Amino acid sequence: MAKVKAGLPQGTRDFGAETVRKRNYIFNTIRTVFELYGFQPLETPAMENLDTLMGKYGEEGDKLLFKILNNGLERPEKHLKAKEDFDKVLEGKNVEGITERALRYDLTIPFARYVAMNHGQLTFPFKRYQVQPVWRADRPQKGRYREFYQCDADMVGSTSLLSEVEFACIYLEVFAKLQIADCRLQINHRKILRGIMEVCGVEIKEREILVIIDKTDKIGVEGVKEELLKEDIAIEKLEKLLAVYTLDGSNTEKLTFLKDFLQSSETGLKGVLEIEQVLNYLSQSAIADCRSQIGLDLTLARGLEYYTGIIFEAKAPPQVKMGSIGGGGRYDDLTGLFGVPNLPGVGISFGVDRIYDVMEELKLFPEDVHLGTQVLFFNLGEAESKAAFGLIQQLRNKDIRCEIYPDQSKFDKQFKYADKKNIPYAVIIGTKELEEGTCTLKDLKKGEQQTISQQELLSFNFTT
Questions:
Q1: pLDDT of 16-37, one tens digit each?
Q2: Which of 46, 157, 302, 464 suits a disulfide with 124, CB 3.0-4.6 Å?
Q3: How many Å separate Cα 233 from the centre of its chain?
Q4: What is the pTM of this model?
């Protein structure tokens, strides 16, 4: 068999023990907060039927779907047909004969599909959280991967704005628990965006304009202006648009401006009212003391086409060039895409991979997150290792994580093993200790050791 050069697909990564422990720290923090707010876990398959996903993320999103080649192509009679079908796929067509499934792009559409399939058995409002990987055929770069985890929470079955209030609280509470200061939670409303289009007289180009406006963070105001000019928008309308999207000031000042600017748009004013209600709720809660900030961002549009109300985007601290680390919003008829109309919903997502990069750069992971094995038993011979193994099993029954070095080796080699694995304690049972029923317990962090009975070892506090 020919040798293969070891490598990874572009945009994917391996995770060693240290990284996995850090990631689990983030996962467990987010799960804990989700559970505090009454959400229950759900998992869906890695792949979905292609027609479940196509058309749900806009034209750009559809291009990023990882389509799965149908199996059965080992049959010679199918080869020619497969080649013909693949040529059609390259032309942008969907051909059932070659691809009928795709890897999930996010967790929201699979969730909507699940609700549609099981709505008769669910208790509404239905609140679920989901922690699973998703795949996007995007161009890999810092903070952007082709395979990455999302942590989602969604609630369907209610139009109450209390849901949006609680989701804002969840964001801020998670970031506070992770000690990520200076995050900014940006909010906007699709109805405000619609109202701006109406007042500026550019409703016919709403979709194109919002896609461009949503790029403000990446290309700046001048870049936005250049792209809008390509859309053949009249100068007076363009200037009116930019006057809104470059608006500065506090949330209160922006809302005051919008109330006047959107007087002729009933839709826009409804959006302003809902944003105002959510901000008022949040200002009266203890969450207002969080270091994270909540701000009305009129350039926030969220590219996904199913949002209908308030939208969220969580931004990394400004000293970390990372951008968005979470987002979501209200989608009042998402399940209608699957034949179950009139189920309002709202949800958010955490970008765990980006949060990891932020915490790594800012050195925010706690010291004990690296801790795996708590105690290493040295191997000094057959009789000694048998005695050690009996103690190990008793300690494991007490939930103490311990292991024995598998080979009888020099002290130096076993000490180096403990050091490289960051193991805080070592237990040594030699000939003398075996005869006396004792052991030498070494605190490898402090460089201290003591001789204690093997019975005392079983009650020693290894967590301090």
A1: 988 999 999 999 999 999 999 9
A2: 157
A3: 37
A4: 0.83
